[in-house]
Amino acid sequence: MKNVTHSFIFLGHWPSAESFGFNTDILATNLINLSVVIGVLIFFGKGVLTDLLDNRKQRILSTIRNSEELRKKAIEQLEKVQDRLQKVKLEADEYRKNDEYRKNGYSEIEREKENLINATFESLERLENYKNETLRFEQQRAMNQVRKQVFQQALDGALGTLNSCLNNELHLRTIT
């Protein structure tokens, strides 16, 4: 360590032209080289580094602005989609209500249909009974008429036989 401090203290006392050679003190030469390189970089690279950082800053700011615009557009689209979703939900609810009304209407129509079919069967049954009663009535009437005609013919035949067999005298005797 003494060599390093010794070489810094006596920088001004180096003989300038005594001999030309390599300095083998690594620490002393590295510090001098590093300070020279850093100085040159700061002096010449300051503008380039500033330009690079400014460009990077502008790109970051434009990216942030673009992201903000995209975020605003996404929020607008989200609001539109939410509005559309709300409308679709309302339409779905309306459809469900209509579907329930339709189902209720269909079930009511089915009940009315069944009631109508049952009423038709009952009407047909009553008509069948009425027809059967009418047929029995007509059969009875026809039988009564046939009986009446048979009775009339039998009576006419008996009267004819009586009239032909009876003469006046027999007739008077029968009456008395």
TrEMBL record:
TM region(s), chain numbering: 26-49
GO terms, biological process: proton motive force-driven ATP synthesis
Localisation: Membrane
Topological relation to the membrane, as annotated: Single-pass membrane protein
Presence of the UniProt keyword Coiled coil in the record: yes
Pfam families per the UniProt record, alphabetical: ATP-synt_B (PF00430)
GO cellular component, one term: proton-transporting ATP synthase complex
Location (main, coarse): membrane
Swiss-Prot/TrEMBL keywords: ATP synthesis, CF(0), Chloroplast, Coiled coil, Hydrogen ion transport, Ion transport, Membrane, Plastid, Thylakoid, Transmembrane, Transmembrane helix, Transport
Coiled coil: 64-98
GO molecular function: proton transmembrane transporter activity
Superkingdom of origin organism: Eukaryota
Record's function text: F(1)F(0) ATP synthase produces ATP from ADP in the presence of a proton or sodium gradient. F-type ATPases consist of two structural domains, F(1) containing the extramembraneous catalytic core and F(0) containing the membrane proton channel, linked together by a central stalk and a peripheral stalk. During catalysis, ATP synthesis in the catalytic domain of F(1) is coupled via a rotary mechanism of the central stalk subunits to proton translocation.
Family of the protein in this entry: Belongs to the ATPase B chain family.
Name by which UniProt lists this protein: ATP synthase CF0 subunit I
